Amino acid sequence: MKKKLLALVLAAAMTLSLASCGGSKTETPSTGSDNSSASSDNSSAEGATYKVGICQLVQHPALDAATQGFIDALNEALPGQVEFENKNASGEANNCGTIVNGFVSEGVDLIMANATAALTAAASATADIPILGTSITAYGVALDLDDFDGTVGGNISGTSDLADLSKQADMITEWFPEAQKVALLFCSAEPNSSYQIQEVATCLANKGIETKEFAFTDSNDVASVTQSAADYADVVYLPTDNTAASNTEAIANILVPAGVPAICGEEGICSGCGVATLSISYYDLGVTTGKMAAKILTGEADISTMPIEYTNATPKYNPTICEELGIQPLDGYEAIEG
User: Fold this and answer.
1) What is the mean pLDDT of residues 3-11?
2) Beta 235-238 vs 262-264: how paired, if at all?
3) Residue 162, H or E segment
4) What is the distance between the alpha carbons of residues 116 and 91, in angstroms, rounded to a whole number?
5) What is the pTM of this model?
6) Do domains 31-161+282-305 and 165-279+314-335 have the same CATH topology?
7) According to the CATH classification, is domain 165-279+314-335 in 3.30.565.10?
8) DSSP secondary-structure letter at 90?
9) Residue 56: other Cβ atoms inside 10 A
10) First and final CA of the chain: distance in angstroms?
11) Beta carbons within 10 angstroms of residue 11's beta carbon
12) CA distance 187 to 219
């Protein structure tokens, strides 16, 4: 009997010892890289912890800034409580599907989809996990919604990078009042780019200006399509377009020697190959998205009723290309800092 009692005591002691060794969790600080990371050491954090998956279509300054703004805002709102898994699709829409399906399998608490291809992939992957888009021009176009009224509903909301397209069309005639032909240069694989150029084309047609679409399919034909646009046009218009943003050097190498100026839909593209833009701050856009995420994660807001949010746009010019083309910047435009 004493031996049995001793055995039971020893077994209970071993069980308690094993339990005391389990349940610890070590996480690494967030760097915004392509690897899974945590915002800080959760061992000292108070309150609930959350896992957020970030799917970014491609690496370029605008999308990078939006992602960083998102991470910074969430870290500020929920210090030490958010683990980020930050993935980049390297410009391949199919990779977005693989990434977000992985997030769904892991059971993340929220998905941030940076760019249209990431958003559509996330929307196809889950109807339950909250999805916040950013760097999306038009949600109705991206998600093929016939009755979009500013709120997507369901498990999707986010922020838009749309700047007033009629004002962008006005910029073309303000900067280049003698222009008669405008080339609309964009990627045919990006539906939001098509939406933008159609709106700008309508505005320019109302001014009596001829337009023609020049669409590249991917990075491989950017140079040849840009050359055709330069041969045709007095001015080129480039919308917010991820493929264009990743190939500004190739575009500039054709437009600048040809003496053809470009008006652009956002600052990142303009800084690489354009003369002027009406652009938002993508970092601020990411911050707004991060603040929305904090409200969703903590239960302060219901994503199904959250309208798409926008940010202010600023008119800017590229001093380097203006100088190369001999163009005098207009009053009221800020210089893009190199």
Assistant:
1) 37
2) parallel
3) none
4) 11
5) 0.80
6) yes
7) no
8) T
9) 28
10) 84
11) 10
12) 9
E-strand ranges in the chain read 36-38, 50-56, 82-88, 110-114, 131-136, 156-160, 181-187, 210-216, 235-238, 262-264, 276-279, 314-317, 334-335
CATH number of 31-161+282-305: 3.40.50.2300
Coil, strand, or helix at residue 236?
strand
* Residue-by-residue DSSP string for 139-160: HHHHTT-TT--S--BTTEEEEE
How many other C-beta atoms are found inside a 10 Å radius of the C-beta of residue 92? 14
Instruction: Dump pLDDT digits (tens) for 124-170.
Output: 999 999 999 999 999 999 999 988 999 999 999 999 999 999 999 99
Backbone angles phi, psi at 266, to 5 degrees: -155, 160
Domain locations along the chain: 31-161+282-305, 165-279+314-335
Phi-psi region of 289 (alpha: psi -120 to 50; beta: other; left: phi over 0): alpha
Angle between helices 248-258 and 222-232 (to 10 degrees): 30
